[in-house]
Amino acid sequence: MKGRTSTYFPPVIQNSTYMDDILSGADEITTAKEMQRKLIGLMKEGCFHFYKWSANSEELLKDVPTENKEFLFNENDELVKTLGLSWRPREDTFMYQMNLQGVPVTITKRTVLSFISKLYDPLGLLQPIIIKAKMIQKIWLLKIDWDQNLPRQEIENFQRYVAELHQLKDLKIPRCILLKDSVAVQLIGFADASAQAYGACLYDKTLNSDSVVSQKDNFFEELKP
Fold first, then answer.
1. Is 220 in a helix, a strand, or coil?
2. pTM of the entire structure?
3. Triad 78, 81, 85: Cα angle to 5°
4. Which end of the chain is more exposed for a tag (fewer CB within 10 A), N or C?
């Protein structure tokens, strides 16, 4: 593929490739289909072939062989896993499915830390929830052994937190954060702090030609030392 003069598609490969997956898209179906066609042709020159196709539009998958699709747009389709996230293409929303089956019976510093490390949130959308787990780490101040049972109050706090995590299965987060045909975009930030932690929240506010307003947010947080 050396010597290719395309000015658009190399950035798709360079900037949207994660290990052996490519995640990209476009605002219009025609643009996305053209990207798909040229990307397939470009990679084919290097003897690379694409599998596990998924899209939020059935039109984009129309010409893809069934055996190369991961999402078929039928009644059995549910979620697609991508980079540790659960994506529902038909609704174009992210969801979180956490395996809470391994909640330890004996609650120690070791088992609490192991459980907290399983809370995977690459986009930072769950930080208001995960920060509570990190605050549980104050048990480190108790100066007890790694495999010693925690005090009753700390055990109850941890069990209550784990029980509340089951509600995440009902959470749906729209993937697209911009309105179609937006004419104005604003990034609005807020920050605050308490004795235990400090954090920030960024809102993306978009306005289209029909004066429709959309606001999406993201969170960042840190524990105070």
1. strand
2. 0.75
3. 110
4. C
pLDDT digits over 105-134, tens only? 788 988 888 888 878 888 888 888 888 887
Contact predicate 87/23, CB 8 Å: no
At how many degrees (to 10) do helices 152-165 and 127-135 cross? 160
pLDDT in tens, 137-178: 678 788 889 999 999 988 888 888 888 888 888 888 888 877
- The type of residue at 137 is Q
The candidate with the shortest Cα–Cα distance to 12, out of 194, 31, 84, is: 31
Tokens of 207: 């306005």
CA count, 13 A, side-chain hemisphere, 221: 21
- Stated as kind and residue range, the H or E segment containing 165 is helix 152-165
